[in-house]
Model the fold of this input.
Amino acid sequence: MFLTNDWADYEIIDAGDGFKLERWEDVILQRPDPQVIWTKADKSLWQNADAVYSRSDSGGGNWNFLKNIPEKWIVKYKNYLFYVRPTGFKHTGLFPEQASNWDFMVDSIKNFKGENRPKILNLFGYTGGATVALTANGAHVTHVDAAKGMVQWAKENIELNNIPSSNTRYIIEDAKRFVMREIRRGSQYDGIVLDPPSYGRGPNGELWKLEEELQPLIALCAQLLSTNACFLVLNGYTTGFSQSVLGNIILREVQAKFGGKIVADELCLPITAGGFLPCGTTARWTPNQ
Done:
């Protein structure tokens, strides 16, 4: 597994009976997780929740705030700062398990052999966790997301870390449409990270279905990789898509063209009360050294 265990401001206190109990700095949230089919380790811990998210039988859900908590607050991972807040769709604006990928990508660009700073493409960039880590370590990142609100959140995270604005280019657009345009322009990137949703729509109503669109998108991304490319990272959260599925797609579309190495596994977070929480899968390609 790819285990993220270097957080100080984030902790999964316990998980069981369909929920996870998390500490975000000093705020404790209870959120549903469909993979948590085991029982809670210590039910008394759950009495400390500051807010609980409950799903509705008719779809969606809502937060029940048991105590006064800030509208948003800051959490820190190593030297990186991020704004988090409970959103109406359960999320907080940050996926802590991705810190394992941030560390991997930062280590990868340290070995970059190009003459200029590495150019990285962050597709489905969300609130910019990877963008913060990479730009803070000298990379230039093109951050692409179809949701204007998420791009704005990413900008706020970049500003929070006092990273020069010249290190980031923000694009509000459908990922595939942007990649195709970059191919026509002859653009090249030294690293690409993709965090695609299972289902979604672009800003102009473009329909995205992971099982239909993922391999064609990776094939397009392979055309954008430079001769000095140092990584491609592909994340997956869709139930039924194992790490081997992601690895095989990269095998066909990237490794067949560039050689190199693929490592694919589960992303996991430790549970303080015992065990590990699976948080999706990831596949990492690196070139031959």
Summary: The chain has two domains: 7-78, 96-286. The longest helix spans residues 243-258. DSSP finds six helices and 17 strands in the chain.
